[in-house]
Specification:
Blueprint (H helix, E strand, L loop, with lengths): L1 E5 L3 H14 L4 E6 L2 H10 L5 E5 L1 E2 L2 E2 L13 E5 L3 H9 L4 E3 L4 H12 L8 H15 L5 E6 L2 E6 L3 E7 L2 E6 L4 E4 L3 H7 L5 E5 L2 E4 L3 E7 L3 E6 L7 E3 L4 H8 L2
Parallel strand pairs: 1-2, 1-3, 3-6, 6-7
Antiparallel strand pairs: 4-5, 8-9, 10-11, 10-14, 11-12, 13-14, 15-16, 16-17
């Protein structure tokens, strides 16, 4: 089996090659490419491999931009950091993907799909649909809220929200100037509408802005405790199941 890797971070591509060698000693990595431009040039000049392992975010943009420039005649497995909406979009569009950090077992399953011809051969059109979905999603994050305060309406920019918490009295926005406002929205609705690049739902009761975090501490076995700049006494615990996703979000 012949493989091409598109990945701009060399430790990641080195790790992929090591796992591939462990999974199949006869497997050949034809090229490791780091940019969209290099990838397009390579595919135009060489026969296509049996499969491409393609990181979504690379040095000069999104690897989706390769597809309008060259028609790949082979299956593609996308590699992506966790993003709930993006993963859902991959599933809806029937595209194969692996989550970072890639595990050898998952990589082995992907290779087996290639061998058994169960992987989609032409992903170009589906990638166009996926990119359209993701772009529309990116353009629809809430930038502001209009909140009734007594007999007035107050406009709050999303960028001015420090963190959000839920209590028995309702859902509350805590702003960067420490003002607190109650909103008639659920935590699920807010999580869906706020930009996931800067907001993260750490548990059922809290959504935090990246700039609100003062320090992150280990807590019990595999859990994390988040300490906020504004409210250092607030108990915000991240479960062991969600802690790896939180670490990936921090490291974007």
């Amino acid at each position: 089996m012949q493989v091409v890797i598109i990945e701009d971070e060399r430790p990641n591509s080195t790790r992929l090659k090591k796992m591939l060698a462990e999974l199949d000693t006869e497997l050949e990595v034809l090229a490791t490419l780091e940019t969209i431009a290099d990838s397009v040039a390579w595919f135009r000049q060489h026969p296509h491999p049996d499969v491409v392992l393609m990181d979504v975010r690379i040095a000069d943009g999104l690897s989706f931009d390769i597809f309008p420039q060259v028609q790949l005649q082979c299956p593609v497995v996308f590699i992506t950091a966790y993003d709930e909406y993006a993963v859902r979009a991959f599933k809806v569009n029937s595209l194969d993907y692996l989550l970072k950090p890639v595990e050898k077992e998952d990589l082995g399953v992907a290779l087996e799909k290639v061998r058994s011809k169960k992987m989609l051969q032409d992903t170009g059109e589906l990638v166009k649909q996926l990119l359209g979905v993701l772009q529309r999603r990116q353009n629809t994050y809430r930038t502001r809220f209009v909140i009734p305060v007594r007999d007035e309406l107050k406009t709050v920019l999303s960028a001015n929200i420090d963190f959000i918490y839920y209590s028995i009295t309702g859902t509350h926005l805590v702003l960067k100037d420490r003002e607190q406002l109650q909103v008639n929205m659920s935590m699920d609705e807010l999580e869906e509408q706020l930009d996931p690049d800067v907001f993260f739902r750490v548990n059922r009761q809290h959504i935090v802005h990246i700039d609100s975090i003062q320090v992150i501490k280990q807590y019990a076995v595999s859990k994390l405790r988040v300490v906020l700049k504004q409210d250092t006494e607030r108990e915000i615990i991240i479960s062991k199941e969600k802690a790896p996703l939180f670490r990936q979000w921090l490291d974007r």
